[in-house]
Structures
1.
Amino acid sequence: MATEKIWVLADTVEGVPSSGGLELLTAARGFGSNVTGVVWGEKATDAAAQLGAHGATKVLAVSDLGGGLAGARVAAALAEKVSADGPDAILGSSTYDCRDIIGRLSARIDRPVLANIVGIEKQGDDLVTQHAIFGGTQIAKAKFTGAGPGLFIVRPKTFAAEESGGGAPEVEELTAPDVGHAGDAKLLERHVEERTGPKLDEAAVVVSGGRGLGSAENYAMIEELAKLLNGAPGASRAIVDAGWVPYAYQVGQTGKTVKPTVYIACGISGATQHMVGMKGSKNIVAINKDQEAPIFSIADLGVVGDVHKVVPKLIEALKARG
């Protein structure tokens, strides 16, 4: 399957593109010579310049969502455009909107979807995808065959976003056809998560806590250490499931994927589900009293010790330095 013409779905909020969309535009430059960004929503076209800077030579916009959710209308508009333009591949990050759009588009154009992708490489004319299976212990590879575009859903942080120096792209407005009751669902309210410091999936430093903390009250020292390092606090699935911290803090296969410069794992044994979401970090520091903990197998620096003693001492040292 040739892959010269590639479309990239790019979520936007108030005209600002998501990091996932910019990551995929960067990757797409290496896969094909004709890269188009796809945006939706009232202010989505405000993102055109930034999409162009990351490699989009053209932008397709579905600005009128009729007051409803993006999925049905954007998929219907793109299905008509696919018939006319025939892209070779359509890439989207694993966000709610992108998954909704690609799922509906799959049904409309009768093409399957490759999802949960953790890597893509071009081999000849084919895009070969990588998928973490068995809790991340094995990697399976796949590719599309037959006529029609390949539909790809890629996990965040699979690629790094880098500007290409491109200029402002041409913007083409698409009109969505009538989608009937499929377009009735509406977003009534949007709540922005309250936080201080950087976002978990964009932070240069992430400090995560696990079951080794012993109790929800002890998570406070994870937040304090993260704040002192100008980083973001994270968590293992175990303490999220236990209700110690919100799901938004979870790092792992079913949570957020992070690739910070420094990742500090405190009281986390290192289940494969967790390591899938953070093993791409540049420097990994593990603090655990069990010297046989799996987390040490991927750590650059391992501290065998009680997290309740090590972390407070680290906090004390950082405060002393001012």
2.
Amino acid sequence: MKNVRIFYTKTDRMRFVSHLDMTRFMTRMLRKAHLPLWYTEGFHPHAYINFALPLPLGFESSYEVLDIRLPDDYAIDTVCDRLNAVFPPYVRALRADEAVLKTGKVAFAKFEITFRDGGALAEPLNEFVGRPQIIVTKRTKRDEKQINLAEKLIAATLSKNEDGNTLLSLTLPAGSVDNINPELLLNAFFEQADAYYPYRVLRTAILDEEKKLFV
């Protein structure tokens, strides 16, 4: 068997599908596409599928990564066509290749956050992300701790989209060692600004330890 890495998008209505439900969804789609998946052994065999980096509920993504195992002689160049034939409109397979890096090498993620603000947030948001200290409480299943988000911001740039709304581009730690949800930053900003604007979060890339595209 060989490890095959599928790169796909998850947008629009699919942002309301949780990671657990996405696992079920992908398992069904892979079966429906009649891909000869490798199954685990034992009393409860299941198809081997592995997501490089789970996507938070409510987020969209133009760069998702899913690993499966297929027979060595299976033609990888047929995988995307088979999947796109059964996928709904809001999930598209972009390409499939043999996996290069292990998923443990995921270290960063890039996001684009678009606000429906008419550009009103550009100046205060620029001042906020430039602060030397942004103290927030990060909660996990086990505990909670205070962290300085300013030290976690690998990159943060502001611009305006074609509609004149504020666009915030972020690069943050991601993966098993350190994982920062961009909503930690957004919630802290809205709290200190005593204001709220609707926004859309799009994950645009998953990066390795050298900040290169994860492949």
3.
Amino acid sequence: MNNKGYVTIFISMVLVVMLVVALAVIRINRQSYARTKASTSLSSAMSGELANYNRYIFDRYHILLLDKNANGAGEGSLEQAVENSLSFDLGEEFSVNSVELAGITGIVDDDCSEFKRQIKQNFKYEVAEYTIEKIMNKTNGEDDPVDQETIQDIDNQISNEQAGISENDDGSQSSDEENDDEKKKKKEEDPRKTLKKFTDAGIANLLLPSDADLSSNIVSENGLPSDLSSGSVFTPIRTDFKDMDTMELDSIGANGWSSSLVTDAEAITYAGQYFNCLTDKRYDDTYLNLEMEYILAGEKDDNANYKKVVDEILMVRFGFNTAYILTDVTKMARCEALAAAISSAAPIMQPVVKFLLAGCWAYIESVADVYRLVRNHKVPYIKTSETWLTDFNSLSNLESLSNGSADEEEGLGYKEYLMILMALTGKEKYYRMLDLMQMNANHNSTSSYRIGIKDCITAFGIDAEIVYDGRTFALHEEAGY
């Protein structure tokens, strides 16, 4: 009997231990289940918020952005939305103590690194590479037509020619020679004076096509990603052509774009695909019509952006036209003869005037180039005697230079020049693209709420405290596009 009692006690103790273990396992499983459910629910709630991306910006530009203010609900609305979703998913068995943001990644953070990443991920590099490769092939990668060596050669030539001018040439002419010079001066008007008449009236206005569609909207700098903080790449060319140093600096002002064109190939081609310009209006519902021009210039209206971009393209063309005219013996002989007539009272200045006149003529050719470009014609990147269009008097008859079919022309078009200029625009181009997205999203919004891209994020973290059956779980989750 005693043995049977011991066995009964032993079996009872084993059963009690097994029951305790079973209850502990059940409790542990319940706690594990509760943590898993809480973590899953938190991830689900955050994914649900990511689904509230701005549909207009995604559909138009293929960029994912989440407004952390929940489309106008205000600060803390994201945490509140996650908390509400958690409470609904977890049910009455759970209670949510707190939900707090634990780090966000904004689209403009770190010089728009998230924007750059999405462009790289969502835009096919093969397409960008092909477009940039086409520009590089057309230009042979030549981005310094007038370099420091060329400038030094010009300066040396001027010095040598001035050294060869005798004192007798410097103001001691006979009366017959003076009379001949007076006749030449009457016949040969300084083309720089003629150019001044056109530049005083505004070269950009002279070039603007009559059918150009410029928006009347004005950009407000309040809340824009860029804050309109930077202007255009270049200052305008000095068109009086009185100073060699200034002309030489202008001739190299647009050098050095080719490496950046390749480095920023995706962003530059992305801008060309998704934004309007003067000669390629893809969308009719934009706040500004000259969007690529805005990316380059950052001014407050289409007209101002157009004028700045005209100055920039003139700078590019001026360098190449100057480089060519210096090699054209016939044109330089024309400049020399004209310089002799203009400088008859001071022959020592003739070599300088010759090169200044060559610069003046190169600028006139550049104006003719841009006149054609803004009318959707192509312009040869490097000129020849056959493709040179102008003489000193051509500004009064530019319309005669835009004949012919653009489809049959070789060279670069207006939009391709904008892409070259974009290679000379640093990080500002990313902020200004975001400016345009914000302006267009708000311009086309049917609600009173206005999105601010500075408040938009692409990733965020959440710290949450959730209570289940008397136990508090501290959770951290991260989510992003």
